[in-house]
């Protein structure tokens, strides 16, 4: 005969079982696909500043051009490129400032929880479930897990754009243990588990694709999409260069004390340190401010036929884009510039020009390195460094105006490539790049640029390329290889027999994206159209 205790135990077990079944059912209802996605729609997630994520902005631009409803989710610290005005931009709120007052062991988890909450809200408030969710990796935590869960609930397809490996970046914080550190191991497991089964994977290099397919057995479609610049990246004309330096950057340059006696004399807006017109104070044929004849609609500056032209006495212009982070050893460039200054100062090297270096970008080490440069260049007569942040529309003009680019990018995984070099190549700007494992997929040594391993080698390359400036045959040879695909020969006899013609031709982002990504995102649409017929 059952006692009261037995009845109580049975009832309690029954209640627990029912409760467990109810919880399991609610979890299933939460994760099962509930909505049908909307064709031709995409949500692009960037756990970072959207304006400083050029590749993701170019993705959004391409989706818009293919008539996709496009939502972009990320932080809004920097302005976006103008072509994204048609996109629906959903900015993630910045974590409260009060978190900075707390120790990292407390503020870190709170920040992650807030990020998870914000991203979930933004993805779920998109009115109709997107057909695709394109996510940038890294960062991997928490974005990959969030996207994995949301995609299951909203029947969306995940596309992961593999820029690098998140755990390899984290390993740099633990130089002693590296990938053996427990947190790095956990991050690696997380990245592999939630990134393995996406609908499609885009890789910035062949090396990254080969590594992840072999080590992580990635599922889904796999495509290598090398970075390429959009159409607006091209070599600048003298008129473009004049507008940039005589007007847009005039205030920034004229207010820089180190440049006042370094640059040749100019009279903005009629001339700059790099360009001139025949409408200057020394030209008696034109009086500034005099209006043109009534029948003329030409600006009086250019009414005497001559448009802006490049000055022969201009300094050589070197550009380096940097994120000012530990994975870019800026000290290499500082040392190389010091050696260049010493060589240019010697009596035997009078054919070397003055060198103006413009550094673009933002990051944590900027103040440290610029302070170091400021002290060193007090003793330099031939080199000056300035740091600037340019708008999205002016940055391509600066690259197209430069004579040489420098990349200090050192890949944490040895599997990614520097986007800055891609932008420079789009502007037909040759590059000296710090060597690492897969750099050869982008920079062809002695063909479209030079590869260096240390500061001394970089200094030697600067001397070799800039000798005789502005007439630099070696520099022009490198620049000539960066010809747009439309201008390359297409006859069968001109193509190399290896079949690598498509890889060697420098295509624009639009051409490259249409070749490799467009078939992925329109595949289901074509299937539906065929089945309807």
TrEMBL record:
It comes from the Eukaryota. It comes from Favolaschia claudopus. Pathway: Protein modification; protein glycosylation. It is an enzyme of class 2 (transferase). Residues 276-297 are annotated as: Disordered. The keyword Glycosyltransferase applies. GO terms for cellular component: endoplasmic reticulum membrane. Participates in the formation of the lipid-linked precursor oligosaccharide for N-glycosylation. Involved in assembling the dolichol-pyrophosphate-GlcNAc(2)-Man(5) intermediate on the cytoplasmic surface of the ER. InterPro entries: ALG1-like (IPR026051). Signal peptide: none annotated. One of its GO terms (molecular function) is chitobiosyldiphosphodolichol beta-mannosyltransferase activity. This is Chitobiosyldiphosphodolichol beta-mannosyltransferase.
């Amino acid at each position: 005969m059952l006692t009261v205790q037995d009845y109580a135990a049975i009832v309690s077990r029954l209640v627990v079982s029912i409760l467990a079944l109810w919880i399991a059912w609610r979890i299933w209802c939460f994760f099962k696909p509930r909505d049908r996605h909307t064709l031709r729609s995409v949500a692009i997630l960037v756990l970072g500043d959207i304006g400083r994520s050029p590749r993701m902005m170019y993705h959004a631009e391409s989706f818009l051009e293919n008539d996709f409803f496009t939502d972009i989710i990320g932080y809004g610290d920097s302005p976006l490129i103008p072509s994204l005005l048609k996109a629906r931009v959903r900015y993630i709120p910045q974590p409260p400032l009060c978190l900075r007052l707390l120790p990292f062991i407390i503020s870190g988890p709170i920040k992650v929880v807030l990020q998870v909450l914000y991203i979930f809200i933004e993805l779920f408030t998109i009115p109709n479930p997107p057909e695709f969710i394109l996510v940038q990796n890294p960062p991997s935590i928490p974005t990959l897990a969030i996207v994995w869960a949301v995609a299951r609930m909203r029947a969306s397809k995940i596309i992961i754009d593999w820029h690098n490996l998140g755990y390899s970046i984290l390993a740099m914080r633990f130089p002693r243990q590296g990938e053996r550190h427990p947190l790095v191991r956990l991050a690696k497991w997380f990245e592999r588990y939630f990134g393995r089964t996406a609908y499609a994977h885009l890789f910035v290099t062949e090396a990254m694709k080969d590594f992840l397919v072999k080590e992580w057995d990635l599922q889904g479609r796999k495509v290598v999409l090398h970075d390429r610049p959009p159409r607006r990246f091209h070599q600048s004309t003298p008129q473009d260069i004049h507008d940039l330096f005589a007007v847009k950057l005039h205030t920034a340059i004229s207010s820089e004390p180190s440049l006042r006696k370094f640059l040749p004399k100019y009279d903005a807006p009629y001339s700059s340190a790099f360009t001139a017109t025949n409408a200057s104070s020394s030209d008696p044929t034109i009086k500034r401010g005099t209006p043109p004849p009534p029948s003329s609609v030409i600006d009086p500056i250019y009414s005497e036929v001559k448009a802006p032209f490049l000055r022969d006495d201009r300094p050589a212009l070197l550009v380096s884009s940097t994120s000012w982070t530990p994975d870019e050893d800026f000290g290499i460039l500082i040392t190389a510039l010091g050696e260049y200054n010493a060589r240019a100062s010697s009596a035997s090297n009078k054919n070397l020009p003055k060198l103006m270096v413009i550094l673009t970008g933002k990051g944590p080490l900027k103040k440290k390195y610029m302070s170091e440069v400021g002290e060193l260049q007090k003793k330099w007569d031939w080199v000056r460094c300035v740091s600037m942040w340019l708008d999205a529309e002016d940055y391509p003009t600066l690259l197209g105006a430069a004579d040489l680019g420098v990349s200090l990018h050192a890949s944490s995984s040895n599997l990614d490539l520097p986007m800055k070099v891609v932008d420079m190549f789009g502007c037909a700007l040759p590059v000296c790049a710090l060597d690492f494992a897969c750099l050869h997929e982008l920079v062809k040594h002695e063909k479209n640029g030079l590869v260096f391993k240390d500061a001394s080698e970089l200094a030697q390359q600067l001397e070799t390329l800039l000798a005789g400036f502005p007439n630099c045959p070696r520099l022009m040879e490198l620049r000539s290889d960066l010809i747009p695909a439309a201008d390359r020969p297409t006859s069968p006899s001109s193509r190399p027999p290896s079949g690598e013609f498509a890889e060697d031709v420098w295509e624009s982002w639009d051409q490259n994206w249409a070749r490799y990504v467009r078939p992925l995102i329109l595949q289901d649409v074509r299937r539906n159209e065929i089945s309807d017929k």
